[in-house]
Amino acid sequence: MxxxxxxxxxxxxxxxxxxxxxxxxxxxxxxxxxxxxFEKGQFVxxxxxxxxxxxAEYAAFVGTRHALALGSGTxxxxxxxxAAGCQPGDEVIVPAxxxxxxxxxxxxxxxxxxFVDIDPRTFNLDPQRVEEAITPRTRAIxxxxxxGLPADYEALHAIxxxxxxxxxxxAAHAMGAVYRGRNVGSLGDINGTSxxxxxxxxxxxxxxxxxxDRDEYLNRxxxxxxxxxxxxxxxxxxxxxxxxxxxxxMNPIQAAYARSQLKRLPENAATFSANGRRLAEGMRQLAGLxxxxxxxxxxxxxxxxxxxxxxxxxxxxVPAGRLARAVEEAMEAEGLPLxxxxxxxxxxxxxxxxxxxxxxxxxxxxxxxNPRRYDxxxxxxxxxxxxxxxxxxxxxxxxxxxxxxxxTIDLYLxxxxxxxxxxxxxxxHARRLDYQPPWSNPAPSTRGEWDVLTPSTPG
Length: 459
Ligand SMILES: Cc1ncc(COP(=O)(O)O)c(C=O)c1O
What we know:
The protein is of the alpha/beta class. 37% of the residues lie in helices and 12% in strands. The chain is built from 16 helices and 13 strands.
């Protein structure tokens, strides 16, 4: 039995090929689609044929009446928050574990993110906590299909109906996943997603897609995308803004590439799901390695594969956080990197701790807004998940780099099996670590550090 690589043994994977598969993969037809745009020579426009065709094809794929192409996933979510009718100081409920943009999209419209804890097994919004967080200022619930698994929409829509709220779905991690027979991208009243290159539906740059069944939501989002104007196809532009809008248009090059990639999304999503299942099944053979729970009726497309370390189940008397760190270090030495995805609940980031936002405490200090501070103890499940779990892969990568072929999964399984043959060594290493929880050292979070980053105000 070979020693652990971190103790001088031979690593399971020592190169020979790159561990990560390239993503996105550009096929000849993707390149030809981009070339079409150059040949046409028109490089902007909400009515550009490539942009309109992407909208129609995406709406048909996800199963909504309407879609809009925008410049980024963040823009699509900002447009969704605006479309939901969020007014300055309104609250939008959002999970404490997600990427910052789910929450900053709310702030962009002067809404106040209300962070809610997650389910310990799916890592998605916990509907019971959602209901407890509702106040008279709540306008919407912004659910995230975290890591590629759809949120619990049946429960969320039931809550929304009871309290007259809008459900916004952040589908950025889960393109190609299915929830009770319906495609991600159609599960919220309003849906936003990202198609930047790390995502399952990638484009050759930045991009986002908005989708909904309701005309009213589409119309509001269209104005947000185009300077606040209403621009009708075939009619002269009136140059009259009805509301504050931005320039959130998608480039036709990105639209053409995404259209071509959309054709392969179902096949790619099925591959990621199958290889994720393979890893989950292998992990279940090793007591104490816990793959993500997938509720009946959902598929998971593994933008991230987050798994839990359960020391008790492994028969080890070490805290889960220490075991997770030891497994991370041991796997790294075996040539099989593991990573964090977020090292603090989003409300632990400096902007929320300092309530900087737009400056002057806005939007938290807006008249009529509920006073709100973000205390990390309100998110015990998220804190536990951040300590006791890790994701497959190296920092800066995502699922498609690993879940494209069984051979990569089998390398990871070989690595985990090797570690599990050396559990006493792993436990010894875990006990000796100089250990701090991951959120104890996030980005600048004190006033002093922030002052260094901001120019002083004249006068
Ligand atoms: C969950 C989630 N929502 C929203 C976004 C924002 O998307 P974009 O980077 O395209 O603005 C991302 C990141 O890309 C994300 O991971």
